[in-house]
Amino acid sequence: MSKVTKRKHVMNEALWDDYELPKENQSLVKVLKSKGNNLHEVTTPNGDEYLVSMPMKFRKNIWVKRGDYILVEPILEGDKVKAEIVKIMNKDSIKYYKENNVWPKEFDESKKEASPAEEDMFVNTNRNQMTVYQSDSSTNTDSDS
């Protein structure tokens, strides 16, 4: 199998080409940050935080960033790493989960609360900020004419 063909199959498997609900042992989590070596710190709807690993077949083909939602399956042999990534959620899969009442309500509320804070977080410091000052007194413009 060529590298391109393998990548195509891996992408189809990871990115929801089929819509199926999670199994009993699988759970939905939100990625908090990447820890390196294909490990990601995630949080559950309950607020528990732990590490998950990226399977070998997804490495160098799939990237997961902070704020993404993923479906994980627990692994038994891990002390620090407690689960492995099964699927990566996209907008269509999230919509499908919400329609079937599988989507955790905690993730909806946290997204609404975090949006104003996230807007302030990503400020480009390499460019000068323009500040516009407006005067409250309209007498200056009246006296000039």
Automatic annotation (TrEMBL):
Similarity-based family: Belongs to the EIF1AD family.
- InterPro entries, per the entry: EIF1AD, NA-bd_OB-fold, RNA-binding_domain_S1_IF1, TIF_eIF-1A
- PROSITE patterns cross-referenced by the UniProt entry: S1_IF1_TYPE
Question: Which intervals carry biased composition (Low complexity)?
Answer: 135-145
Species this protein is from: Chilo suppressalis (Asiatic rice borer moth)
Q: What is the lineage of its organism?
A: Eukaryota, Metazoa, Ecdysozoa, Arthropoda, Hexapoda
Which UniProt keywords are present, listed alphabetically?
A: Initiation factor, Protein biosynthesis, RNA-binding
Top-level taxon in the UniProt lineage: Eukaryota
**Segments of skewed composition (Polar residues):** 123-134
Domain S1-like, by residue range, is: 17-90
Q: What is this protein called?
A: Probable RNA-binding protein EIF1AD
Region (Disordered) residue spans: 107-145
